[in-house]
Every structure is written in C-alpha cells, then in structure tokens.
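Open question from group meeting: does this chain pack into something compact, or does most of it stay loose? Before anyone orders reagents, we agreed to write out a predicted structure and look at it together. Recording both the input and the output here so the notebook holds the full record.
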Amino acid sequence: MKFSVETIRPDDYVAVRGIIADSYKNDMPNTDGDEVDMVDRLRSYSEYRDNFEVVAKDQDHQVIGHALMIPIQVSSPWHSFDIVSIVEISVGSEYQDQGIGQAMVTELETRAQLAGYPAVSAIDNSDFFFKNNYVPADNFDIYSSLSIDLNANMIKPLFDGSLFNKGGKVYYPEEFFGVRNTEA
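Structure tokens returned:
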C-alpha cells in the first residue's frame, strides 16, 4: 500500500479525531479513554510543535494514521534536560499491520534528531516500540512520574552516548493529563 507521512494541518484535525477514536475503541492495553481529548489539549501546550505531529495519508490523501510527540523534561536533583515523547500513535483499523505506525515513528525520530533532542521516549504496554529498538528507560536511570509498569517506560537514544550519566524522572506537561493520574 502506498502512503505518505506528512506534518499535520488544521484541516486534518477532524479526521485525526476519528482515527484516534477508532484505534482505541477496543479497550486495548495502552488506552485510558482520554486519547482524543489529550491530543486536543496538547495542541495548546506552550512547547507544542506542529512539525512533531504527523499524519499518514493514503494515495487519495485520506488520513489513515496519526502520531504526536512532545518535548518533555527529565529532572533529577543535579540536573534537568529535555527529550521528546511519543504520546499518541494510531492507525485506522483497516490499515494496521502495514508498516504505517512504524513509518510515522521513524519520521518523528528523524525530526527529533534533527532538532537536537538526545532521545525519544514512549509509554507502551505492547511490543511495538520494543520492535523499533526502544528499551526500558530504567536502563538509563530514567523513570516515569506516571504510575505505569516499569517495562512500559520505553526510550530510544538518538545519538551514541546521549543519555550517558543523565538519569532522572520524566515529567509531562499539565496538558497531557485529563483522566490520568500521577504519583507524587
């Protein structure tokens, strides 16, 4: 199947809402029911960058997939630094398992690397990110501020040594939350 991955445009928003709702309708392990609203909230985040939100379109220019990453902070008592996190990825049910999700992730990783970010993180309870060379973030002493399974906190360094002696806790912006809960 032929498709393109491109930066989202405002006229894609309605279609994206439908793709997200369709992708998460089966109460999959990575859903809390807030994904559509979370994406809308994150567009008002002060660090939101439209080039960090992509859509996949078929040959008829119809949206068939969506992915969003945002800058986030990793902090410890000694230092803090920014990375990016892929906070939402969805592909229409009839287009899954065709490499569309992987193509969108690869595009976001390239954009993050070009922007100079040292790593990309993701929260994932499936093996999707593992298959895309992500590893548990605790390998780099990076932990989530969310109440999630330790192995669901994934990260991929974008440069050799980019996370050496860094460590800390990942903090998400206020706009990320809705029905989600964080630990103190």
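Observations to bring back to the group:
The two ends are 46 Å apart (CA to CA).
The beta strands are 3-7, 53-58, 63-75, 80-91, 119-123, 135-136, 142-144, 153-157, 168-171.
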